[in-house]
Request: fold
Amino acid sequence: MRPTLELAEQMTQAACAAAAGAGCLVSAAVVDAGGHLVAFRRMDGAEFAGATIAVDKAYTAAGNRIATLDLREQVAPGGDLAGYYAASGGRFIAFGGGVPLWYDGLVVGAVGVSGASGEQDHAFAGTGAALWEEAAGELDG
Amino acid sequence: MRPTLELAEQMTQAACAAAAGAGCLVSAAVVDAGGHLVAFRRMDGAEFAGATIAVDKAYTAAGNRIATLDLREQVAPGGDLAGYYAASGGRFIAFGGGVPLWYDGLVVGAVGVSGASGEQDHAFAGTGAALWEEAAGELDG
Amino acid sequence: MRPTLELAEQMTQAACAAAAGAGCLVSAAVVDAGGHLVAFRRMDGAEFAGATIAVDKAYTAAGNRIATLDLREQVAPGGDLAGYYAASGGRFIAFGGGVPLWYDGLVVGAVGVSGASGEQDHAFAGTGAALWEEAAGELDG
Amino acid sequence: MRPTLELAEQMTQAACAAAAGAGCLVSAAVVDAGGHLVAFRRMDGAEFAGATIAVDKAYTAAGNRIATLDLREQVAPGGDLAGYYAASGGRFIAFGGGVPLWYDGLVVGAVGVSGASGEQDHAFAGTGAALWEEAAGELDG
Reply:
């Protein structure tokens, strides 16, 4: 199972709806297992940084099988991954907003959100990822 | 006037519908006047190269105020822009699929499509751009 | 409303004049809403790093809708945006000197200054931005 | 002798005035002997590609001691510099618009113009360079 375009767009819409509900303007992206973009949307008025950062958060989450929020402590000085974000040509991002999508023990994609605080972006991305878990659960059941 | 998210998504959908009608699998992107992504969709089964090339075609069209199909001859050896595509950090693309969106004498965004031949991608992007022209024309009228 | 070339040059001149008054040698840049350069000047004797850093500070401020001075704490280890400056191909800068230009709730450009301390650069950029606010206010009034 | 900010701005203004006289919208840049930006201006309505290409043309001309128009044949397939433009991280540009500034047998800077055809950009840059030659000649005389 993988994030189809139809499901990916439901995820970016859900993430943006959650942001709108919190009064935030964000960009939302879904990438596939290879970290390549499937769907993207930037809310009217959201900053242009989101056009790359939302994608790169999803890329980071898919490529490292971890929520980017959980990278924050690891990349601090002395941490296990200090200096980590210079890897991958600068595309790895170590603050909240990227959430991997799991299926049957494998990461098959990720959601990335950018525009609010790291913790908010993480929560909005989680709203999108919840749709995935629901769809994946139905397939499992 | 500018490409809102709502209109941008209609444009990427129209471009993908035109590709589907021709039996092609593509990615479609819309960028704003600054070349930054507004909306993107990649059809199920479309190659992952489209995730960057469709975006970069739109970026090229917006940044140079020209359909990328029209750059093809200019970048040929001996042409006025030979070697052009190495510029801008390698993001400029000189084959068909990027179409600028005009309003009141200014370029306010662009559509980019990637996945089929350059001429097909150009035509699919044009389907999206036609929606813009219609919307922009209504505002003028 | 947007930063025309004429107004952009007044802003870079004002920022450089403020720096000269403080005995500093700086570079000053103004970018548009998409983060693309409109006007730039480097004072005689100012370090060449300013040729990219002033531009990138303005790019950061426009792309993130925030003064780069205000990013400083967020990017500290453990902060919400730790590792932030590796994003966007290394163009994001998280110390003082970039100031966004607002109009009607949107960021329509930014001023960037580099060459002195982060707090000084922020103040010099603010001198430029003040011209914008004055011009924008007259349009509103 | 070197291109001071004052002289550099006269050069970018002269290049833009020449472009305006020909009905073209361009960006114009002057770099120093190290290829680093001294002054830049983008005419209202000129494409955003000029924000990097005008600078990179000047960078190429300064770094290679040659007008970029004269690189065109050398970079053609089979030419002495085939594939040249991939060097320098993609910053070298091999079509018209970059013109070096000479003094006493050394290149001390360059003018770069982007926005019209390669031959036009070369001519507009030459208008700027002529101011340099005049100023340098007076110092020699």
